[in-house]
Structure formats: structure tokens, C-alpha cells
């Protein structure tokens, strides 16, 4: 199990987008391919999503398969609580979101599968990851089952600082990437189903 703060930014790109060379910023490792499959849980009225909280069970990736809860933690940052992979929802994670859920039952609300190509920018230590995500997503809400796909980029800080973000971002913008209008895959997929506020 683990608990850490994740700092990342998301960018919109077209299918024809070509990831620019980052070699001018330092050593670049990759690309490494990761196949991710995640089921997202929420209340029937999407209380977690409305509070910018995500609750998921994910397989694939390197060493982070399992249950994850992500909570807002400031600009570009989220606190991520991780539990090992299991078939049953971890009760302590349910308790962690109970104030937001109001104790309502959590059930699958979406499934998101991602083919991720990862480039790692390295200085003395790994500074940041650039993830080129090809997404297939399904809405699982009763009466609203549907699917869609898109491509997006994520930049996640490792041992870099916010200046690393800004440097990589300038390169991406020059190549045609755009800041994401919605910061998460789940928000993009299920945002239209949020009840009016």
C-alpha cells in the first residue's frame, strides 16, 4: 500500500499529432508501452466525480496495479492512495471517501482502457514522464451505456520541479498540443452525466 502526491498536467491532441523530440531537454528513455485497464466506481449520482475524487481498480502498468483513490491536493496535484490488487473493494478506501459519498453505495460507473507510450526525461534522476495515451472508454451508468475513444498526453513530474513542466509544455504547445479543458479521463467521459448544480 502507498500514499503519495501526484503532480501532472493533461493536454489535448489530434490523432495525427506527432510527439516532438525532447532530446534537447536532456536524456530521454523509451518509449515504453503500458496497457492499462481501469474500472471506476462512484455513486449513482456521481458524488465522487462532482468532488473531483476518483476511485478505481486498475490492472496493467508497471508496479501500480490495484485500487486507487485520488483526492484534490492543490494546483496540478492529487493525493493518491493505493492498495494492492484484489477482487473486493478495500473497506478503508470506502471509508476514506465516505464523507463525499454520504455513505451511498459505490458501483462501476465507467471502464477506461489505455494504450500508453511513455517517454522518460532524465537528468541526474528521472525528471518527468510524457505519456501518449490512446484511450477507449465505456460509460457503465444504468441507462446510459455508451463508448468513445480519444488521444491525449499527460506529463507527470517525478523528481523534476514546475520549471520542468513549463519547459516540456512549451515544446508540446509548439508541436500543436493544447491544454486539456477537462483534467481527467473520467471527467471527460462522465462529466456530461453530472447532475445540474
Please outline the helices and strands.
Elements: E1 2-12, E2 27-42, H1 47-50, E3 54-60, E4 66-72, E5 77-83, H2 91-96, H3 98-101, E6 107-122, E7 126-139, E8 146-157, H4 162-175, E9 178-179, H5 185-190
Antiparallel strand pairs: 1-5, 1-8, 1-9, 2-3, 2-6, 3-4, 4-5, 6-7, 7-8
Your description of this structure?
Helix content is 17%, strand content 47%. It has an eight-stranded antiparallel β-barrel with strand order 1-5-4-3-2-6-7-8. It contains five helices and nine strands; from the N terminus they run ββαβββααβββαβα. 26% of the residues are buried. It is of the alpha+beta class and 197 residues long.
Key attributes of the depicted protein:
197 residues, alpha+beta, eight-stranded antiparallel beta barrel, 5 helices, 17% helix, globular
Describe the structure concisely.
By secondary structure, the protein is an alpha+beta fold. The chain has helices spanning 47-50, 91-96, 98-101, 162-175, 185-190, and strands at residues 2-12, 27-42, 54-60, 66-72, 77-83, 107-122, 126-139, 146-157, 178-179.
